[in-house]
## 1
Amino acid sequence: MPRIASAKALESYRKEQKKLRPENQRFLAICAGTGCKAYGSDKVVAAFAEELKKAGLSDEVKIRATGCHGFCERGTLVVFQPEGILYQRVQPDAVPDIVERTIKNGEIIEDHLYDDPSTGEKYKYEKDIPFYKHQNRLILGMNGHIDPCSIDDYIALDGYSALVKAFDIGPDKVLEEVKASTLRGRGGGGFPAGRKWETCRNVASDKRYVICNADEGDPGAFMDRSILEGNPHSVIEGMIIGALTIGSDEGYVYVRHEYPLAVERLGIALQQAREKGFLGENILGTGLNFDIKINRGGGAFVCGESTALMASIEGKVGEPRAKHIHTVVSGLNDKPSNLNNVETWANVPLIVKKGAKWYTSIGTKGSPGTKIFSLVGKVNNTGLVEAPMGMTLRQVIYDVGGGIPGGKEFKAVQTGGPSGGCLPKEKLDLPVDFDTLWEEGSMMGSGGMIVMDERNCMVDVAKYFLGFLKFESCGKCTTCREGVKRLHELVTDVTEGKGTMETLELIQQLCDTVEVGSLCALGQTAVNPVRSTLKLFREEYEAHVKDHKCPAAVCKELITYTIDEEVCTGCLVCGKRCPQDAILGTKKKPHTIVQEKCIKCGICEDVCKYDSVRVA
Amino acid sequence: MSVTFSINGVKVEAATGDNVLDTARTNGFEIPSLCHHEAVSPYGACRLCLVEINKGGRKKITTSCNYEVLDGIDVKTDSPEIHKHRAMVLELILAEAPKSEQVQALAAQYGVKQSRFANAKNDEAQKDRDNCILCGLCTRVCSEIVEVNALTFNGRGDKRGVGSPYLEQPQTCIACGACAWVCPTDCIGFSEEDGVRKVHRWGRELPMAKDENGRPVAPVFQLHHFKKRVGLPDDFFKKAPGSR
Ligand SMILES: Cc1cc2nc3c(=O)[nH]c(=O)nc-3n(C[C@H](O)[C@H](O)[C@H](O)COP(=O)(O)O)c2cc1C
Ligand code: SF4
Ligand code: SF4
Ligand code: FES
Ligand code: FES
C-alpha cells in the first residue's frame, strides 16, 4: 500500500477499512496489556485462535488482541463484541469450553462473569459493571476496540480524521481551539497546553521540537504506558497536530526504560504511520514534513523532569538545570521545545475533532476533560480509572473503586504520586481537579491514587515516599540531596520512637528550606508527603513521639504482637509458620509469643483463622 | 548589550549573559557561595547564593549564580527569610563537611555553630564522602579550564560521589592540582615529594620532569598538555625559570 497522498484518499481508504469491519462483526477483544500478559493473555489469545479454527469459526468470530482495559486486577479480560459481554480471569484451559458453550451456543457461563465483592452481584455486560459504569473513558475507551498494532483499526474508528481537520482549518484555528479548550498538562504541573504551544510557536527560530514525555516514573503509575501500549496512534496524531500548529519538523517520544512493550508497539505504530503517509515528508500531500523518534529513558525518575529529559535526549547526564529560561524558549539543543505528557497529547485529537465547546462541557471550569487515575491500595477495584474532572474522591473510591475491602475503615487517600499529599476522611467530598487538590496541600500529579485504611500509618507513608525520593534525587543540589535524606532520617526516627517534639519542629523547618531552595520540582515538591501528613495527621505523629505508640500498628519498633488467650484455640498453625520459632504452645492450649524472639513480621496475624492475634 | 537593574535598591549595570551573583559581587554586595567560581560555568548546586528576585511584580527566592541578569529586575540579597534558608542550607552542608574550616566559618556567620544533623550515625555515613560537599567545582575546573575531563560525578541521590570515571586512577589527569586548589573544603589533597606529584583523593601519582638544574618542575603529562595548548617551544620547561 503506497502512502496516502491526500485527505480525499484517506477518506476512501477509511471507507474500505470500515467495510472490512461491519458493525455486527463478532469479535473477541482480548486484553494483551502488560497486566493481562502477566496473567498469560498471550496463551488465551492463542487458545482462542486454535479453538475457533477447529470449530471453523475463524472468519465469523475475529480476535483482537488489545491494549489495557484498565481492570487489570481481573485479567485476563475477554470481551465478546458487539454484545459487550465481559468474561474475567480467563485461563487458557477454559477456552475450549467458552468456545463451545458461549460462542457456539450463546450460553453465558456464570463462573466467568464479574462478581461485585461487596454485594456478590454478577454482571454480564462490561458497561454495567460499577467499575466501568461511573467512568467516562474518552481516552482509554478505544483501547478495548483496537489492535494497537493495526493502524487500520485506528483509521476505521475515525483515526487521523482530527489531523485532516487540523489541516483544513489551519494552525491558527487549531491553536485557538486548543487554547479555548483550556486543556491542562496531564504530566503533573497542569500548565495550560495551548499557552505553552503558543509561546513555543512565537519564539523566533529555524527549528522547533515537539516532545512527548512517557517517562512515567511514579511508583504504581501506568496510565501513560497503557495509552502507548493500547492506542499509540492517538498520541502520534496529537503530536502531528502539535507539530503543524507549533511549526516543528522533528519530534521525540521519551519512553521509560522499563516499558519494552510500549516501545515495541509505539515503534510499530510509527512505522505504519510513516508507510501510510502520516509521518515523513509531505504528510497527506499538504507539504508538512514531520517525523518522530523514540528515545529510551535512562531509567531515573528525575529524567521525567523537562530539563533533565532534554539533557538526556542530547546524550548528556539526565540532570535538571535551573529553569530561569524555559524549555519552550530554549530546550532541546537550545531550540524552542514543546514538551507534553502522553495523556495530554492523546487529548488533542479529541479536542480538534469535537471542538473546545464540547471539551469544556466535560469536567470542571478550571480543569476540563477527564483524567486517568491509577487507583490502588486498600480498595476493592484497583485499576486504571478515567473519570471526568470534578468527580469527588468519594465517587472515585466508592462508586468506581467499590469501597474498602474487609470491612475496614477508610483513613486517607494519597494523590499525586511521590510528591503528592494525603487527604483524610473529611476531604472525601472534595472534587478531584488540579486546583482543589493543590489548595489542599496535595496535587493531581500524574494521577496516582493510593487508598489507605486504618491499618496504614501516615508517618510510615511519609517515610516510604521520602525514601523513594532520596533514592531518586539526582543528588546535584544540597537541599534535595541532603535535605530529603535528612527528612527521611528524621521521619525514620519518629517511626522508631526516637523522635521528640523538637524532631517534629526540625522537620517543619527543613521542609520550608527544601521546598524553597531546591533546584528542580523533584526537591521542591518532595516535602509534600511529610508536610501534608504532619499537618492533617499530627496526632498520629505525636502518638509516636510522646506515647511511643503507632496507632495503626505498623511501625515495628513500637508494636508488640500478643495472642488473646480467650480466643486462641491452640490450632498450632501460627507456631508452624513463625519464621523465628517465637510461638510457644501445645495442641488445644492457648499459645504465647516470646517477645525477645519476635521480629514483628505479622505472619501469625495473617494466618490465624480465629483472629486471636493482637497487635498494638 | 547592557542591562540595568537594581540590587538592594541600588541601580547596577551588567552585560547580557552575566549572572546576578558575579554582578552583585562586582558592585560590592555580599552573597555567600560554595559552588561558584567566576572562571567556570555556574552550576547551582550548593544553594547558598539564594536571593529574592522580583520580576514584573512576581517575587521569588532563587539562586543568583545561575540567574542571568535582566532589565528591570529587583534583587534583594538578604532578608530574614533568606537568612533563615541559608542557615538551614549551611546546617546541611556542615554535617557533610564537619572538618572544613571555610564551611565552619560561613556557618558561624549565619549563627550555626553545630549542625542538628551531625551525629554519630551521620559521621559513619559521611565517612566515604570525607568532607566533599559535591559542589562540582573540581569537575568543572578540570573540564572547562584544564580541559582534560578527568573527573565526573557518579551515583545519584544520597549515593552521589565524585571521582574519576571508573574510580580508578584517572588516566587523563595531568596532576596539575587545579581541583585541589579550587575545592572549597580542601578535601582533595595535593603534594609534591621526592619528585612525585600526588593528587590524593583521586589516587593519581605522577613523576615530575626536571629542569636543567635538576629541580622538579611539574609532571611530564602536565607539561605536554601545556605546551600543546599554549604552543610553547619543546624545550620550554627544560630551561630554568629565569632563562625561559
Ligand atoms: C522529578 C520530576 C519527574 C517528572 N516526571 C514526569 C513524567 O514521568 N511524565 C510526565 O509527563 N511529566 C513528568 N514531569 C513533569 C514534566 O517536567 C513536565 O512538566 C511535563 O512533562 C509537561 O507536560 P504536560 O504539560 O503535558 O504535563 C516530572 C517532573 C519532575 C519534576
Ligand atoms: S532538586 Fe533534586 S533532583 Fe532536582 S536538581 Fe536538585 S538534587 Fe537534582
Ligand atoms: S572534591 Fe571538593 S571541589 Fe570536588 S565536588 Fe567535592 S567539595 Fe567540590
Ligand atoms: S492489562 Fe489487561 S486490563 Fe490492564
Ligand atoms: S553558588 Fe549558587 S548554588 Fe552554589
## 2
Amino acid sequence: MNAQPSITNAAIPEQRQVSWAVSFQVSWAGIRRRFFRSLITMSGVVLAIAFLTYMQVMNDIVRALVRADDAVLNVLLQQAGVDIYAGDAPDRMMVLLIVLSLLACLVGIINSMLMSVTERIKEIGTLKCLGALDGFIVRSYFIESSVQGIAGTVLGCLIGLAVAIAIATTNYHGYIAANLPLLSILRSLAMSLGIGTLLSVMAAILPAYIAARKQPVDAMRVEE
Amino acid sequence: MKAADDIIITARDVTKVYQLGAEEVHALRGISLDVRRGEYLSILGPSGSGKSTFFNMVGGLDRPTSGGISVDGCNLQDLNQKQLAWIRCHKMGYIFQSFNLIQTMTAVENVSLPRIFAGESPAKARAAAAEILEMVGLGHRLTHLPSQVSGGQQQRIAIARALVNRPGIILADEPTGNLDLHTGEEIIQLLADMKKQFGITIITATHDMKMLSASDTVVWIKDGRADRIARKGEFEVAIGTIDGKTIA
Ligand SMILES: Nc1ncnc2c1ncn2[C@@H]1O[C@H](COP(=O)(O)OP(=O)(O)OP(=O)(O)O)[C@@H](O)[C@H]1O
Ligand SMILES: [Mg+2]
C-alpha cells in the first residue's frame, strides 16, 4: 500500500500525531456542546449501572441487618420478603438480570456511537482534509464515548445508591443508620464504577476504529 | 515574485474509473493540465463531467486509476498516508460547497484545527485563527457557532480555515453553490484578494459562468476530458461565442 518513496518525495515529512492531551481538548468542545445527545447515549449506562448498584447495596444492607439479629428487625426483614435463614446464597435470577442489563448497556453504547459515526461521516472526512490522522479520529471517538460512559456510570452509581438507601430506610426505619455497612457499600460502589467504566471503554473501541476508516473524499459529498 | 510559467501542479493523463457493482463509471478519461503558481484557475463543466473527481485527485483525497499528479514537483501517488496527510495539512486548503464546518465548534475553534494538526498548541493556534478571522472580516464572530452565522459568513470561516496554515494551494469545489449571487460574488472576491495578498494558487470548480470574473485560466471539462483551456483575455470573448454550448 505504501509505495516506495522516490527521491523527491522523501523530502515530504510524515504528519505527526497530536498528543492525547490536545486530542482531549479538541474533543471536549464536541462532548460539551452535544450534551443532550450524550444524555440519550448515557441513559442506557445510567439505568444499567443504577440497577447493578441498587442490587449490590441493597444486598449489603440486608446482610448487615440480618447479622444484627434483632427481634423487631427480623420481623421487618421477613415482612420485606427476606429469607433471614438463607444466609449469603446469591440470587441466581438477580445475577442473570444484572448481567443481561449490562450486556444491553454495552450494546446500547456501541449502537449509539455507531449511529453518530454515520451522522458524522462528513465531519470525519473534513477533519482528514485538514490534516487529521486516523489515530486522531480513533482517539477523539474513544475519548468521547469513554467520557460519556464514565459520566453515565458515576450518575448510575449515585442513583442506585440513593434508591437503595431510600427503600431500605422506608422498610427498616432507624435500624439502617445503626447498622449501615459502610465498607461493603463502598466496595460495591467501586465495583459498579469499575464495571461501568470497563464496559464504556470496551464499547468505545469498535466505533472509534470504524470512524477512522472513513475517507477524506467523504467530506465532499453534498448530501447531509 | 516567481516567473509566470512556474508550474505548481501537473496532471498527466489522469483517469479515474469507479466500480459500481458490475458497471464501470469512467469519471475521468485522461486529463492533462498544468497549473501555474499563483494563478486563479476555474474548472467549468456540466454536472457529472468529473470536476469533483478531478479535485479529489489534485487534493490528494483520492488516488487516480492511472496517470500522475505532481504538486510542487512531488508525485502524490508515491506518498504514504501520513505524507499525504502532511500535504493536506500544510500545502492545501479545502473549501467545500456545503462549508463543512464542525458544527460543535466555534468559528475560532474551527479555524485553529489545521494549526493544531500541524503540531501547534491549541492556545497559539487560537491566536493565529483569531487573526485570520479578523482578516476575512469576522473578527466580531470568533465565538459564534456555525449555526449562529449566515451562509456567507460560514464560507468566510471556511476560507479562514483553509488559509490558516498558509498553504500554497486552495481547492474550492463550487464554493458559491449554496450562496446567493451577491454573497457568492463576495466570496469569489475574497478568494481573489487572498490570492493577491499571499500569492496562493486557487483552483475552483463551478458551473456558473458568472463566477469566472476573477479567473486567470478557465478549463472546460466535458465527459471526463479537458475540452478547452483559455487564459485570461481569451475567455471573455470565448464566453460570448460558446455560451450554452458547453455549459449545462
Ligand atoms: N464514488 C463514486 N462512485 C461511483 N461513481 C461516481 C462516484 N463519484 C462520482 N461518480 C461518477 O463520476 C462522474 C463524475 O462525477 P463528479 O462528481 O466528478 O462530477 P461533477 O463534475 O463534480 O458534477 P457536479 O457539478 O454535479 O458536482 C459522474 O458520472 C458520477 O456519477
Ligand atoms: Mg461536483
